[in-house]
Amino acid sequence: MNSVPIEDIVKAxxxxxxxxxxxxxxxxxxxxxxxxxxxxxGFFDYFASERVQxxxxxxxxxxxxxDPQTRFERLCQFFKYDIPCLxxxxxxxxPDYLVEAxxxxxxxxxxxxxxxxxxxxxxxxYLSSALAPRITRHGVLVDVYGVGVFLMGESGIGKSETxxxxxxxxHRLVADDAVEIKKVADNRLIGEAPELIRxxxxxxxxxxxxxxxxxGVGAVINNKPLDLxxxxxxxxxxxxxxxxxxxxxxxxxxxxxxxxxxxxVRPGRNLAIIVEVAARNFRLKNMGYHAARELDNRLNALxxxxxxx
Length: 309
What we know:
alpha/beta, Udp-n-acetylmuramoylalanyl-d-glutamate--2,6- Diaminopimelate Ligase, Chain: A, domain 1, 5-stranded mixed sheet
């Protein structure tokens, strides 16, 4: 199971450490956040103790209004659970009684200057991204007319050269050679370059080039949803390639189905223009216009009309 080290949360959100405890290697395994108002009231059925616990003004006011004995018992019962941490929002004063109970059960306590709703929203977004299932695939990811096009194929087939021509034509590079893909929703994949090779591209015969330095900041983008996969392969005279586009192929990555186009490569074909056309055609299909089906409908209408004569 994926987990996010608690130190990463502290660093990303600039949390003030009130008490860290003796186990700094705690990992957070879910992006859901819990506000423990019901637990402070004594209701622990279905308590989501595996979540980050966020205490806002409402919960703190309620705690301060309890009599000391009841408050101590509720906090002891709360901290007995194996919670990853507790974060007090709004930069509020963290009472000694809360810190003492946390120390008794060795539970980390932090303070954030963010308001509660903003903190929860940002935490959820951060954890959803950090905990998303991910995989690294060989290929090139480019943004063509707003479409995330993932170029796949054997090494040396011309993926990087095609991407370079697309960049020259005004499109943007996301990643070359290695693409980190993460699943951020049931039907949504995001691709990005590993930090080490971000904005770099390898061109055989020239070597490594820096796309951002060479073409400007507008030629690169850090991440992009994957919309279309283009499988590049050497032209095979014995293979029948799709000439109409009526049959649609798909490829599955991390359980998400993506439309796939097989693009045969041979000298004389302008691959960059073909990729541009594929991206435009993909957008048209999403808007409800399918050129191959339109032609098929016209042919069927013509045949029907001839039959009726």
